[in-house]
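User: Before I run my own analysis I want an independent prediction to cross-check against. Here's the chain; please return only the structure tokens and, at the end, one sentence I can use as a sanity check.
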Amino acid sequence: MPAARGSETFEEELRRAAREVLTPLLLDRSSGKRLLWGTADYAGHAPDEEMSEEAIGGPNEGLIRPRVLKAAEVQRARARARAEVFTPAWVCNAQNNLIDAAWFGRPGVFNTQAPEARQWQTTPGEIVFPEGKRWRQYVRLRRLEICCGEAPYLTSRYDVTTQEPIPVPDRIGMLDRKLRVCAQACRTRRAWV
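Assistant: Structure tokens:
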């Protein structure tokens, strides 16, 4: 039996902490209700059924998986039925680079890309901000990914075309870049500048 922490076990404490994080994530901010499953692809759940913490965790752990872990036939069927398309990481990177080049006033801030090779080289070292712009301004920029799904423009866990994971330092999403800037600010003790 696990050691108790106060009146709850370690497992109970983990479940409670996870619920505090998961509950807001399951909220549809436009309607104020919970997110819907939206598809019959999840065993035991109707498309118009609201998602719950219990339906995702515990014995149902692993029910929601990234596309890369779904069977190839399921991927093809979703593409045919819903026009589900996944943008390659190199395309997301090129587009995010254009946005950042405009804001910073120069290319290659986070990485340089060779379009013909469909790869990029992460720019090492510190992110240098233009005159009159600060790291907090960059972090507070409002940027929106207008598509649903795995949000590769926001964070790039893996490349959908190769199914290879992308190491954290080389990730190209907007959130990935903001986290890099925040980490740099903490390392260089500029957190309050």
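Sanity check: The helical segments are 10-25, 53-56, 72-82, 89-104, 135-140, 174-187.
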